[in-house]
UniProtKB/TrEMBL annotation, chain A:
Assembly and oligomerization: Dimer of alpha and beta chains. A typical microtubule is a hollow water-filled tube with an outer diameter of 25 nm and an inner diameter of 15 nM. Alpha-beta heterodimers associate head-to-tail to form protofilaments running lengthwise along the microtubule wall with the beta-tubulin subunit facing the microtubule plus end conferring a structural polarity. Microtubules usually have 13 protofilaments but different protofilament numbers can be found in some organisms and specialized cells. Found in a complex with TEDC1, TEDC2, TUBE1 and TUBD1.
Single GO MF descriptor: GTP binding
Highest taxon above the source species: Eukaryota
Co-factor requirement: Mg(2+)
Pfam families in alphabetical order: Tubulin, Tubulin_C
Designated name of the protein: Tubulin epsilon chain
Family statement drawn from the similarity comment of this UniProt entry: Belongs to the tubulin family.
Swiss-Prot/TrEMBL GO biological process terms: microtubule-based process
Gene3D superfamilies, A to Z: Helix hairpin bin, Tubulin/FtsZ, GTPase domain
Alphabetically ordered keywords of this record: Cytoplasm, Cytoskeleton, GTP-binding, Microtubule, Nucleotide-binding
Entry's localization field: Cytoplasm, Cytoskeleton, Microtubule organizing center, Centrosome
Repressor found in the keyword field: no
Species, as recorded: Phalacrocorax carbo
UniProtKB/TrEMBL annotation, chain B:
Protein name: Tubulin delta chain
Keywords for the protein's UniProt record, in alphabetical order: Cell projection, Cilium biogenesis/degradation, Cytoplasm, Cytoskeleton, GTP-binding, Microtubule, Nucleotide-binding, Nucleus
Top-rank lineage group of the source organism: Eukaryota
Function: Acts as a positive regulator of hedgehog signaling and regulates ciliary function.
Source organism of this protein record: Phalacrocorax carbo (Great cormorant)
Taxon lineage: Eukaryota, Metazoa, Chordata, Craniata, Vertebrata
Amino acid sequence: KGIYDEALSSFFRNVDTRSGGDGPDIYRGKICSLKARALLIDMEEGVVNEILQGPLRDVFDSKQLITDVSGSGNNWAVGHKLYGYQYREDIVEKLRKTAEHCDCLQCFFVIHSMGGGTGSGLGTFVLNLLEDEFPEVYRFVTSVYPSGQDDVITSPYNSVLAMKELNEHADCVLPIENESLFDIVNKIHQMINSGKLGSTVKPNSMVTSGTGSAKTVQEKPFDAMNNIVANLLLKVVTSARFEGSLNMDLNEISMNLVPFPRLHYLVSSLTPLYTLADVNVPSRRLDQMFSDAFSRDHQLIQADPKHSLYLACALLVRGNVQVSDLRRNIERLKPSLHFVSWNQEGWKTGLCSVPPVGHSHSLLALANNTCVKPTFIELRDRFMKLYKKKAHLHHYLHIDGMEQSCFSEAISSLSDLIEEYNELDATKGGPRTDPSRLKIAI
Amino acid sequence: MSIVTVQLGQCGNQIGHEVFNVICGDVHGTHGLCSKKENGSYHDACKERFFSEEESEVPVARAVLVDMEPKVISQTLSIAARSGYWKYDDRSHFCQKQGSGNNWANGYSVHGPRHKEVIMDLVQKEAEKCDRLSGFFTIMSMAGGTGSGLGAFVTQCLRDAFPTSFILNHVIWPYGTGEVIVQNYNSVLTLSHLYQSSDALLVHENDVIHKICAQLMNIKQISFRDVNQVIAHQLGSVFQPTYTAEGGLHYSRNPLGDLMETLVPHPEFKMLGLRNIPQMPENSLAYSTFSWPGLIKHLRQMLIANAKMEEGIDWQVRPPRLGSSIPSSQSTNKPLHFNTSVANLVILRGKDTHSIDLGSFRDPSLYTSWLNPQDAFNAWKTPRAFNKYEKSASLVSNSQFLAYIHQYTKFGIEEEDFLDSFTALEQVISSYSIL
């Protein structure tokens, strides 16, 4: 059994279960029993039950679960209004308990999808709760956006209704699209199966692998894709867990990447996707890692940041990478990127000396970039297609507390957001206007 | 007299650690190149300045470590202790868990007042350990949230609690293409506040030191550790003991006071820059020899042409000829690239320092016309060589060219008058603190 240290304590409690049941927390020393600092909420039981029967069953206990039986029927209103109202007390109670176990609570990670009913509806309800009950704690939301070929017909409604909540109550959102995850998974498979001579991929180095897990054959179709998101979240909190010469904490991410409160959607990319087992890493590879971070096919949403406008960009590097490598690459890539005129040097950097498992170094890029706009525009278009016909609306409107105005406000909020991105895009490539200098009497 | 070092934030703590390393390494080194007696006095003076003698086998640094998150401090403490040559006092540190989020206001208005008592308590304890306190040396970066914001607050507290002690702030200017996006906000706010409470600000720019690492030290993959070690070497070359008077009998007793007296004749001008030559990789030291005239000549031209290292100096720049100049500090006769000084201090360490001719530094054309060059220039010396360099010269100057001022232009602030324009920012800050 290992040692319970700061790195682990950011995500887990160490509980003394020797005398059976739930003992007090152990703050230092050997690991006794790790419990995740988490709440699992689902309005149907299938997924949660599977987790509780799987290898992680000891990490979650019943006090951290909130479940129901029938699900939300892919209906945001059911999740948000119906179940929200019903489970409010329970959720607050459990949140308080979990927060009490923390020495210093820095941030909440809300992980959900936008297209369904529970994640989208109840999820955004919880987001509101977090703001009410813990106003000073950062709310980082990881949202899986529905793809065009989504099989849930009402996903545009659910997503737009949820977007309004994200606009108003999240500090930072990391949007994810399944299509992108899928493409990355395929890319890796191709690499493995291409049979290139002398190149074998290290199994636990893939961004799709659950590190530490022995199996290389994925049992369920979404496992590989989900592992990418898991890896993303791990990288975001790296500085909270490990040392480095230039730490980059979560609150710094929000501070530096969000110049205006509503424009808090960050496009993320992870590199490298895998490591070749028998190749030493010369400097050229290192630079390749930086280039890849900005390429279209490494982004976790369908977007191309290179051809859009950056408001800010963060680079968090792990492993044997020094500040000179970082600087060299920023200088190299800068000319091909467009930054807003008032933030031409908008780079936030972090260096962590501990590399992730299976790699000698890795890079996480978080960009506040107008390339999220197309995702939102598409969402709005799909919403309008349904809304114009009032298709499926009645399922929502007959829920207590739900009115037509909820819809119009939501689409309005989304349109405003898109408009803000439009205004920024309009400044792209324009002349840099320096503000006039303050005149001082000498 | 002793100096208490206050290390603030990740940068402050990382650099502070390297500074004590350099000082300790220098003192224990065998390259003093002087008599045993000389070496002994040097050793004693240094010890009194930077370390306290307590019931421990190794000297204990006179320092207070402050950070809003725990990782850097715990690393710093343990690495120092492991060196076996010196260590920090285990109790002289304060940290929290959350960090400041690169937010100056968080450091200044939230963490500052909240933790003032505890921090000042630690400082008081260190101050009491000193027989006589010369003053405080604070190390911080301007880009982040703790060093910059909390640092500004702590400096103010130091000024209030120790009105007769000197305060020298060492500030690190971040890389131009950022480390932190809001660094311009943080830097502007920090400087305006420090200017009010501090006696002098000694500035180091990451970009400049990075170039030194690349071009002079030949380091291929430059890390922050490399940058910090160069900075530490430069600081050590200023703070290690020297004789301040020609034919002085003992090492200067009041390092900070002397520094202020020579370099800050007017409270409006507090910004100090530092240049040190020669700088080279350790393994090249054995193969190099330098002559004092050569070093002095280079150092002077580095000042005039505003070069920060001994390579790539523009030798074309010359001071204007006197007699035709208008008696005002903004003389329009001076060529554009010329760097006018308010005061200069040259520190020479090593062999044959007694025979050096420093007349070129007394040239009145180097200085603003409202100063007498006799007062504006000083030289301190010691025959004791520093940090394995047989000869080493440092120039601390209070001069015109502040290369980073362009960073302010985003906020519409004039070069010479940036002091006054912070008022507008101040009002914004107070309204936020009330929230």
